[in-house]
Design goal:
44% helix, homodimer, binds adenosine-5'-triphosphate, binds magnesium ion, 8-stranded mixed beta sheet
Chain lengths: 259, 259
Amino acid sequence: NAVVVAVAAQKGGVGKTTSAVSLAAALARFHGKRVLLVDLDPQGHVATALQSTMPATGPSLARVLQDEAESEVLDAVVPTGIDGLDATAYDAGLAATEDLLGTRIGKEFVLRDKLRVTRTHYDVIVIDCPPNQGNLAINGLVAADQVLIPCDPSPLALKGVAALAQTVSTIAHRLNPQIDVLGVLLTRVDGRNTTLNEAIVSEIEEAFGPALLPVRIGINASLAKAQHAGTDIFAFDPGCRAAQQYRELADHVVGQLAT
Amino acid sequence: NAVVVAVAAQKGGVGKTTSAVSLAAALARFHGKRVLLVDLDPQGHVATALQSTMPATGPSLARVLQDEAESEVLDAVVPTGIDGLDATAYDAGLAATEDLLGTRIGKEFVLRDKLRVTRTHYDVIVIDCPPNQGNLAINGLVAADQVLIPCDPSPLALKGVAALAQTVSTIAHRLNPQIDVLGVLLTRVDGRNTTLNEAIVSEIEEAFGPALLPVRIGINASLAKAQHAGTDIFAFDPGCRAAQQYRELADHVVGQLAT
Ligand SMILES: Nc1ncnc2c1ncn2[C@@H]1O[C@H](COP(=O)(O)OP(=O)(O)OP(=O)(O)O)[C@@H](O)[C@H]1O
Ligand SMILES: Nc1ncnc2c1ncn2[C@@H]1O[C@H](COP(=O)(O)OP(=O)(O)OP(=O)(O)O)[C@@H](O)[C@H]1O
Ligand SMILES: [Mg+2]
Ligand SMILES: [Mg+2]
């Protein structure tokens, strides 16, 4: 049965998609895991980031989620061109799902239920969440065993981490007792901007102490360039620091999941 | 009657809040306009960005929007400490409004109707939208005369601009015939990263040509530092390039609104 890792943050632009894609790719490439990347964000940026080797369209995840019958997320999966990594296809219909889920009985459990069989086909499922705490994002958290929270060293991003940690603990009490915070991943750390970084890092450490992951992702233009080329960072610039740092993140995650 | 400018982008982290706050502050400080900043994002980052001079709490915008009676956005307004600039207070209740609006008759017109009297009290109303195309963001667009679309020079942000332009033209046909795209504002432009910038800029120019604004905002750490201090860029670092660029943006907007 797969371990489900949701990559979530209410704050926009902190590196959720970049981290979800890079982590999933590293788990498949360097740890021989069978990995599924589920894109719960109507923006569909997983498919954009991997567009050079993924099919442009595929079966609809929205239809699976909106279907009251027995369909599975597996029915909306396509290969990514990376060995061991599948992903859900781009689906413009996902935008409507946010509203349509709002009136369903047990609306928070829809994704978890649609992963019941899918989980038996993979070792790890990584979920890229949209930048909010709406119905799709909540579905991602309720389906998850672990939550990875990217945060860039900025006051606005920091404010969202506490709100999300609060949401996760509410979900743990009411909907998903086994959810755990894998950690806060500091992203886009700019080596030149030390005064603000240090102020933010010490605020995160004070607020979240042990939850701050030992791995940090520095600012690196190769990540956006890889997305422009439509490939993951390991295919685009395997020797760059960001590739190294995301590989270390995958090593850390595998270590954590093993315990 | 105030001109309403919505600052919108589905992509997260492209500088919507930073641009909304900086533009509104510049219009009040340098053009003597009476300005209202409406925060439609449940994250409430307008209040975070101005927290050193704004009251921490205030009347609830969510209650105004959810109220079927005659209340106005004006009932949820507080001073910001900047002469000529008011804003809606932080309101944790706004998160629930997204779902609650979903089932209302004429759900897209709620904000427009609640601005009917409010518009007579200001020269410009600037709306900070959340990073999606949900009910709150659509309300912002339907209430708007002009839409400012921040975009950073990244492939993922570029993809969202076309989707938003499509939504704006649907809104123009069905809900708000006078809406116009003020332009695409290039933000976080990093002088060191010219290859990707040039590739993205030429893709934007090809897709949106004249809509690309003549003013661009360079990457500048002072913007996040100002937010950490809870003041606008003009109070924090008035001589920096970002302050100059946002002042030029305000000059351009005033020129456009005058025509
Ligand atoms: N470490 C980094 N260094 C430099 N750029 C980065 C880094 N991580 C992410 N980026 C860039 O920052 C932007 C935001 O990242 P990304 O889109 O992954 O964030 P997100 O949280 O998924 O955004 P959204 O809230 O819109 O879903 C992208 O253009 C991406 O290429
Ligand atoms: N020109 C710039 N240079 C450097 N940093 C910037 C610039 N503009 C914005 N930022 C920083 O980038 C981050 C994202 O900006 P901001 O929060 O304004 O974007 P947003 O689009 O409102 O995000 P969200 O989608 O979460 O609402 C913030 O930490 C902000 O301080
Ligand atoms: Mg994303
Ligand atoms: Mg914002």
